[in-house]
Amino acid sequence: MNDLVACDDLVAYQDRGADCVITHPVTGETMDIVFVVAGPDSDTQRRARLATTDALMAYTGRPPAEEQERLAIEQLARCVVDWRVKQDGVEVPFSFSAVVRLLRKFRFIREQVDAFAASYEPYLPKVSQ
């Protein structure tokens, strides 16, 4: 990667997303939960940040903590472009509201998806030295 064309390609690549495989918070075992998350430079994440900023600016003063948490969860959910999630061995249909429910219900999942969404590692080619 040595010019802007490569950077443009990275933005498009990041919009397609990368697999964030959720692991059990204690054992570290992989679970049947995979979020496809758009990268930090993607237009998807940029639009999610702008929507959150617009929502925050609509408040006079500081929004309550519960509202800030709701907006943060929704911003993260907008970065998820697909998923492969099973419940009792059956695929769970993907939707924005289903992602929000899962991120709200399980903090360990939210933390893993949030860290993944902020990382460049899954989206940039490995460079050997």
Strand fraction equals: 15-25%
pLDDT < 50 stretches: none
Work out the helicity level.
Answer: 40-55%
Largest sheet: 4 strands, antiparallel
3D architecture notes:
- There is one protein chain.
- This protein is α+β, with helices and mostly antiparallel strands and 129 residues long.
- The chain is built from five helices and four strands, in the order αββααββαα.
- The chain has one domain.
- It is 50% helix and 19% strand.
- Strand 3 and strand 4 (90-91) form a beta hairpin.
- Helix 2 (43-57) runs antiparallel to helix 3 and helix 3 packs across helix 4 (96-105).
- The model has no long low-confidence stretch (mean pLDDT 91).
Question: Which helices and strands, and how do they pair?
Answer:
Elements: H1 4-16, E1 18-23, E2 30-37, H2 43-57, H3 65-78, E3 80-87, E4 90-91, H4 96-105, H5 107-118
Antiparallel strand pairs: 1-2, 2-3, 3-4
Helix pairs in contact: 2-3, 3-4
